[in-house]
Design goal:
single chain, 232 residues, alpha+beta, Metallo-beta-lactamase, Chain A, 6-stranded mixed β-sheet, 4 helices, 19 strands, globular
Length: 232
């Protein structure tokens, strides 16, 4: 297993070599306990020992079902409580007594850490707001509910990233509205290097607007020159 310190209080937990879709989890360390955000499918003896050295795991939260893998393993190993949104309950393939299903729009499993139901490509799609992140400016941990793209001035939103299927604009606007009440300067996505280091809230705002404009065939207020459909 591979451990990477991204900033004070935040560690990446990944596998080397990569496995499955190559995701990595994130360990948020707080005075109230540690939260494991998203999961990887393997826990080695050395990885278990390192996580214990970092304070163990009190709670596990997952952005969406593509990252459910391994959560029962980690919950059992560390005696942690798992928090999943009830809207995605049907996707749990490995039930465990420590899995708790929450309802509504937000949940605070530990002080300073808030789970936000944002929707997106799953009804219970969740992001995590870490109040102390980015040196107190706040950070969002998003998986790919809010996808970090190469141009760090923007993010993206998809129904299926592998198949390039877009979401309807109303669902993208729901994601933007869900995180708008929270202050955050930084976003950590679901893969190594998927980070917007600063200006992340503005990136989300401008991306929501750009998304609707693109889907409606207009950018920067101008109508895009789509060709006329062929005559029937």
């Amino acid at each position: 297993m591979r451990f990477t310190e991204y900033e004070a209080g935040l560690w990446g937990v990944g596998l080397k070599p990569g496995f499955a879709i190559g995701q990595r989890a994130l360990l948020v360390r707080t005075d109230a306990g540690n939260v494991l955000w998203d999961c990887v499918p393997v826990l080695t003896d050395a990885g278990y020992q390192r996580l214990q050295e970092l304070g163990g795991i009190s709670a596990i939260a997952v952005s969406h079902p593509h990252f459910y893998t391994g959560l029962a393993l980690y919950a059992e190993a560390f005696g942690a409580n798992v928090y999943l949104h009830t809207a995605d309950k049907q996707h749990v393939t490995h039930p465990h007594p420590r899995v708790n299903f929450w309802e509504g729009e937000t949940l605070e499993p530990l002080a300073g850490v808030t789970l936000i139901r944002a929707g997106g490509h799953f009804a219970g799609g969740t992001v995590l707001h870490w109040q102390a992140g980015a040196s107190g400016a706040g950070a969002l941990l998003t998986g790919d509910i809010i996808g970090v793209v190469p141009d760090r001035r923007y993010v993206s939103f998809m129904y299926s990233f592998p198949n390039y299927l877009p979401l309807p604009p109303r669902e993208v606007e729901r994601v933007g509205a869900a995180v708008e009440p929270y202050e955050f300067a930084r976003i950590y996505g679901g893969w190594e290097g998927n980070v917007i280091a600063s200006g992340a809230k503005d990136a989300v705002r401008r991306s929501v607007v750009r998304y609707r404009q693109a889907v409606e065939g207009r950018l920067d207020g101008a109508v895009l020159p789509w060709p006329d459909p062929p005559a029937s």
